[in-house]
Amino acid sequence: MNLEWLTWQRSPWGKATPAQWRYALRNGIAMSLALTIAYVLELDEPYWAMTSAAVVSFPTVGGVISKSLGRIAGSLIGASAALIIAGHTLNDPWLFTWAMALWLALCTWVSGYFHNNAAYAFQLAGYTAAIIAFPLVNTVETTELWNIAQSRVCEVIVGILCGGLMMMVMPGQPDSVTFLGALRKMQARLLEHASLLWKPQTTDAIRTAHEGVITQVLTLNVLRIQAFWSHYRIRQQNQLLNYLLHQQLRLTSYISGLRRLLMNWPQPPQSLWAGLDALLEELSHPKPCPLRVARLLVALAPDENSDFRHQAFWLRLRDFCRVWMNCQRWIARLDTPIPDDTISVPAAPPLARHTDNTEALWSALRTFCVITLIGAWAINTRWESGSGALTLAAISCVLYSASPSPHNSLNLLLRTLLLLTLFSFVVKFGLMVQVTDLWQFLLFLFPLLTTMQLLKLQQPRFAGLWGQLIVFMGSFIAVTNPPVYDLADFLNDNLAKICGVAFCWVAFAVLRPGSDRRKGLRHIRALRRGFIDQLSRVPQRGEAAFESLVYHHISQLSNSKDDATRRWLLRWGVVLLNCSHVVWQLREWETRADPLSQVRDICIETLRDVMSVKGVRQRPLAAALGELERISFTLARHHQPDARRLAGIIWRLWCSLSQLEQASPSPQEDNARRAVK
Description:
- By secondary structure, this protein is an all-alpha fold.
- The protein is 75% helix and 0% strand.
- It has helices spanning 12-15, 18-40, 47-55, 61-89, 93-113, 116-133, 144-169, 175-197, 204-230, 232-236, 238-264, 271-283, 290-300, 308-333, 357-381, 386-400, 406-431, 438-458, 463-477, 487-510, 516-535, 543-555, 563-588, 594-610, 618-636, 641-657, 667-676.
- The longest helix has 29 residues, at 61-89.
- 42% of the residues are buried.
C-alpha cells in the first residue's frame, strides 16, 4: 500500500513555497481578523466582513487597492439604491420586485459596458442592493432597512481594511517589478515573433502566435493599471508607459506587415534571409549597437536599379528597427531612480477598448427576466426563503454575464454550493454548537482557511473551486451575531440559494449569450466602421488609437473555439490595420509634383469605393486591386525618386488588401467567409 501522499513533503504545507505561505497566511489572518472585528463591533452578520476580506485577496498591492476602491464605491452605491428602492416600494411586493429587477439590469448593463474598476463597482452596486433589500421582503418594520444597510456597508469596509492592513504587514511582490519585467520580456518576445513570421513557410502556428502576442501586449495594460495604484514611480511615468505599449503594438503591426510584403514579393534576394537573421540576432543583444544595426541595414538596402518592392520592404524594415531601439532606450530610462524632467515624454493616450453594447443589453434583459420570475414565484408561493434565491440569482446574473463561458462558471458554482451545504451542516451543527467563545472557533477556522488558500495556489485545475469555497463558506456557515441554530431555516436557506443558481443556469440556457460567430460578425462590422472613419478627412481616432482598438477587437475572441471566426476576425483586423497605416502615410507624404498628389488621392478614393460596413464586393475589390497594381508598376518606371517611393507605398496597400480575396479551403471557413462578408 502506497502511503507516500501522507508524508509531510507531499502535503500542502510541505510543498508550499515561502511566497505561497505568505499569501495564505496573509489572507487567512485578514479573514479571521475581519470576523473578530465585526464581532467586537456587534454587527449582526459578521461573515460578510470575512467574505469581503476574501474577495480582495490579491497577490499584489495594486490589485488589492484597485479592488478595494471598486468594492467600497460599489457597496455605497448599492446601499443607497437599496435604501431608495426599498424605502419607497417595500409595501408593494410587485413594484418592489420590478424596481429591483430594473436596478440589477442597469448594473448588469453598465458592468458589461465599462471595464476594470468601473465594471467591478457596478457589479458590487447590483448585488449589494440585492443583499440588503431582498431579506427585507418579510419585514414589516421599514425602520430596519437603515440598520441592515449600514451593517452591510460596515462589514464590507471592515473586510477591506483588514485585507489592506495585512497587505501592508505582509506585502507580496511589488507590482512595479512585475510590470517592468513583463515589459522587457515583451520586447524580447517581439523579436522571437519576428523571426517566426519572417520565414517563407506558412503554418497555423503563425496565426496562433500572432494572437498570443496581441493578447500579451494587452495584458501588459492590465498590469500597468495595477502598478499605477501601488507605486508612485509608475504614476509619474504613466504617460511613458502608455507610449511604450502603443509602440509595442506598432511593432506587432510592423512584423505582420513585413510578412505580408515577403509573401507577395515574387523574387526576393537570396541574401535577404541571412541578413534578416543577422539583424534580429544583433537586436536581441542586451545593448544592441546602433552602428552595427545601421551597417546591417545598409547591407540589405537596395541600389538604384533594384525593384521598387525591395525599397518598400527596406523602408518598412528600417522603421521597425528604429521603433524597436527607441523602445529599448525608453525602457532603460525606467530603471533610473529619479526621472529626468528635462526630457519630454511623447504624448500617448491610453489603449482604446471596444464595448459590445448588444451583448451588454442582452445580459441586462436576462437579469431583469430572472429577478422578475423568481420574485413572482416567491410572491405567489409566499416562500419565506425566497430572498436567498433572489440574492444568489442576482449575484450569478451580474457576475457571470461578462464571463466567456457562463455555463461552466454556473456548473462550478452549483458544485460549490452542494459541497458547502454538506460541509457547513457538519461545521455548524457538529462543531459550532459546542463552541462558546469566538477564539475557539478561530482555532478551527484559521488553519482551515490557510490550507484552502495553499490548495488554491497548488492546484491550478481546481483553483476556481477552492476560491469559491473560501468566498461562500461564511455565507453558508452563517456566522451571525448572536449564533442561530435552526435546522429548518438552515436547510430552507441553503436550498433557496441552490434553487436561485439553478434557475439562473436555466435562464442562461434559454436566453443564452450570443455565439462566437455572431460576436465575430459584430467585431468585424465595428472594424469596418472604424476603418471608414480612418478614410475621412478628419478621423475621430488617431492612428495609434485605431491600432489599439483593432487589437482589442481581435483579443475579444482569443479563447473562442470557433476557429473559422477567429481566423477571419484576425484577417480583417490585420488587413484593415495595415491599410490604415498606408492611408496615414499617404496623408503625410509630401511631394512637389501635382500628378503624384493626384495619384495619392486616387488611392484613398479607391478604398472608399471598395470598403463599406457590410464588407467588400469581389468585383470592385478585384478592380481596385488591378488598378493599384497598374499604378504601382507605372510609377516604378517613373524617373522621379518620389514616384518610385509612392509605388512602394501603393504596393504595400495592394499586399494588404489582396488578403481579403483569398479563398478558404475548408467548407466551414467558406461558410464563415460568406457570413462575415
